[in-house]
Write a structure and sequence with these properties.
Largest sheet of chain A: 9 strands, mixed
Structural class of chain A: alpha/beta
Number of helices of chain A: 14
Distance between the termini of chain A: 19 Å
Number of helices of chain B: 1
Distance between the termini of chain B: 19 Å
Strand order of the largest sheet of chain B: 5-4-3-6-9
Strand content of chain B: 25-35%
CATH architecture of the largest domain in chain B: Beta Barrel
CATH topology of the largest domain in chain B: OB fold (Dihydrolipoamide Acetyltransferase, E2P)
Number of domains of chain B: 2
Order of helices and strands of chain B: HEEEEEEEEE
Structural class of chain B: mainly beta
Shape of chain B: globular
Helix content of chain B: under 10%
Number of domains of chain A: 1
CATH superfamily of chain A: Thiolase/Chalcone synthase
Oligomer: heterodimer
CATH architecture of chain A: 3-Layer(aba) Sandwich
CATH class of the largest domain in chain B: Mainly Beta
């Protein structure tokens, strides 16, 4: 891995976020991309690489809209969550090989579209024939069944689950543009009706329309650009040997994601470990996903996350700040991508009252069903 | 307790033998015709023996609950308000390693569902459709 060129995230951008937004997905993405390029101190003509995931408008159309002169590198990472975080790995490979100088990673989503966030599962023939006729449909049910299994193996109280959205809300209230800004207490959580045991609506992430983007450049180039470089010290990818179709029912250990694989690779490349981590941005589609990934990132031992989060430990003022923008639960559901944006801002030290003190090493965990990517971001030097 | 009604789409014939067996109150799962390995969910092409085919074989009708969730809000397309609550479970059948069936637990009669609970196959008719549901063994 020593032959890789050191890279950094030089620019980040976000569209507005909301439950239902008027502009088409393409416009939201173009808006986020323009902001990311401007934030990097670059112009569209400097961007020569593109990386994204399935399900978003293709790079040629975005490049044309932005006024990009020549695309020299275009790649598609895996499914969002894993892909939006893992795209930095493709960017680093392209830059190391001399294929591109500045790679734009972009993603956008409109869950307000018909079928919402569940629709891609309905398209799956196995789910249509083996799960939906039994009413087993929608990500909240899949992850509720995981949470029940976790509860059985390690113990898990409603109060422990509630720590996750309560912390997220506290962070979101310090983050301009967050979709949810009203206060949320543990009592509010416990009064929220159960939708599928053990989950309440508040165990689930938001539905969002919005887009986010970031620019990856060589560290050398980054040092001449306006913002302090957020160094991509390591980025790892991992995948389980089950299909996405089977992930939520046939995964031999139902409560294992591929985060233990991707984080090991990311830490190794970075020469850092979980003990060095000052803050974490973790793909929080559901409360249980945060707990499981905290364990897979090594922030605590297996089966320990539920008790680890007690007492506001992942919230503002806690000793392991998680999802310092409010995550997908209270900031917005822009799978994995708004987490990268937030981590970069923490590393730059520009988060005002939500700034984590001495934030020098951050970890970003992107879950994409059976796939996972981990990125370790650090300050320069 | 309710039961959701949502017909299998059967875009392909891949899962048709599963439902054909259920309609006859039977339970069959696909295995590799060469080595006999259970292949669930049924794949388009066999990873163990690409020249083999899927053979649908009768399986034991008893098993153990691996996990469950009691659904208060059904998320299927359409209106299913009157069909909740129901308890989805993943059941591991006896002597069918590596396979979990998605099912609904019926006839609980107030017994709280539990992981590790022993269950037996008890198909239930909803409208014209038979569902592969399970009930407590005792």
């Amino acid at each position: 891995m020593n032959s890789l060129t050191p890279v950094a995230i030089t620019g980040v951008g976000e569209s507005e976020y909301g439950r239902v937004l008027e502009p088409p997905l393409f416009d939201l993405i173009a808006n986020a991309a323009r902001k990311a390029i401007e934030d990097a101190g670059l112009s569209a003509a400097d961007i020569d690489g593109f990386a994204s995931t399935p399900g978003v408008p293709p790079a040629d159309e975005l490049a044309a809209a932005l006024g990009v002169k020549e695309r020299r590198f275009t790649a598609q990472a895996s499914v969002a969550g894993a892909g939006t975080v893992g795209a930095a790995q493709l960017a680093q490979l392209a830059i190391s090989a001399g294929l591109a100088k500045h790679v734009l990673v972009y993603y956008g989503i409109k869950t307000s579209r018909p079928g919402g966030a569940y629709a891609f599962h309905a398209a799956d023939p196995h789910k249509a024939d083996l799960e939906m006729p039994l009413g087993f449909y929608g990500q909240p049910l899949y992850f509720a069944a995981l949470a029940q299994r976790y509860r059985h193996e390690y113990g898990l109280t409603d109060e422990q689950l509630g720590e996750v959205p309560v912390a997220a809300r506290a962070w979101a209230r310090m983050t301009p543009g967050s979709q949810k800004q009203d206060p949320l207490t543990l009592d509010d959580y416990l009064e929220n009706p159960v939708i599928a045991t053990p989950f309440r609506k508040l165990d689930c992430c938001l539905n969002s329309d919005g887009a986010a983007a970031y620019v990856v450049s060589s560290l050398e180039a980054a040092r001449d650009l306006p913002n302090p470089p957020a160094v991509v010290a390591g980025v790892g990818f991992g995948a389980l040997p089950v299909t996405l179709s089977e992930m939520f029912t046939q995964n031999p250990d139902l409560i294992q994601f591929a985060g233990h694989l991707s984080s090991k690779r990311a830490y190794e490349q970075a020469g850092l470990g979980p003990k060095d981590v000052d803050f974490a941005e973790i793909y929080d589609c559901f409360t249980i996903s945060v707990l499981l990934q905290m364990e897979e990132l090594g922030l605590c031992g297996r089966g320990e996350a539920a008790s680890f989060v007690e007492g506001g430990r992942i919230g503002p003022g806690g000793d392991m700040p998680v999802n310092t923008h409010g995550g997908h639960m209270s900031n917005a559901y822009i799978p994995g991508t708004n987490h990268v944006v937030e981590a970069v801002r923490q590393i730059r030290g520009v988060r005002g009252e939500a700034q984590v003190k001495d934030a020098e090493v951050g970890v970003i965990a992107g879950l994409g069903g059976n796939e996972h990517a981990t990125m370790v971001l650090t300050v320069d030097g | 307790m309710g039961l959701p009604f949502f017909e299998p789409r059967l875009d392909t014939d891949l899962m048709r033998p599963y439902w054909d067996a259920i309609r006859n109150n039977d339970l069959k799962l696909p295995a590799c015709s060469v080595c006999g390995a259970w292949l669930w969910y049924p794949p388009e092409s066999l990873p163990c023996h690409p020249n083999g085919h899927l053979e649908w074989r009768p399986v034991p009708k008893t098993g153990t609950v691996y996990t469950f969730t009691t659904v208060e809000r059904c998320l299927l397309p359409g209106d299913h308000k009157d069909e909740t609550p129901y308890t989805n479970a993943l059941v591991e059948l006896d002597d069918v390693p590596g396979v979990r069936l998605v099912t609904i637990l019926v006839n609980l009669n107030g017994t709280p569902p539990k992981i590790g609970m022993r269950v037996r196959y008890a198909p239930t008719k909803v409208n014209d459709q038979t569902l592969p549901t399970f009930e407590p063994e005792t």
